[in-house]
Amino acid sequence: MIRVTVELVSARTGKVEVLGRAIIANDGTGGEYEASYDARFEKRRGGHVWKRGRVEGFKRKSAGVWELLALALNDAIPDLIAKARRARR
């Protein structure tokens, strides 16, 4: 399992606030070179699932964790990803 926690750390006080989490888990299918993963995304604290995603056929030996996270995010929130891309233009 991979867990990515996004925190806001106050530069003034050092107080840490959890903004969200991504949990990505291998579903046990696939083989040595490819695997499939289920992802869930949580907002704030409490473990409430905001969105879910899935990555199938991930090349686990040649691709890295950031690629896996990007694919999971793209599957879970494609509209938000597209909106962010348009805002950069």
Describe it.
- This protein is an alpha+beta fold.
- The chain contains two helices and four strands.
- It has one domain (2-87).
- It has a four-stranded antiparallel beta sheet with strand order 1-2-3-4, with helices on one face.
- It is globular.
- The relative contact order is 0.17.
- The model has no long low-confidence stretch (mean pLDDT 92).
Kindly estimate the percentage of residues that lie in beta strands according to DSSP: over 45%
N-to-C span: 35 Å
Number of strands: 4
Total number of distinct structural domains: 1
**Strand numbers in spatial order across the main sheet:** 1-2-3-4
Order of helices and strands: EEEEHH
Helicity level? 10-25%
Strand-pairing-aware structural class: alpha+beta
Mean pLDDT: 92
Largest sheet descriptor: 4 strands, antiparallel
Outline, from the CA principal axes? globular
Number of helices: 2
Radius of gyration of CA atoms, rounded to a whole number:
15 Å
In summary, what is this structure?
The protein is an alpha+beta fold and 89 residues long. The chain is built from 2 helices and 4 strands. 25% of the residues lie in helices and 49% in strands.
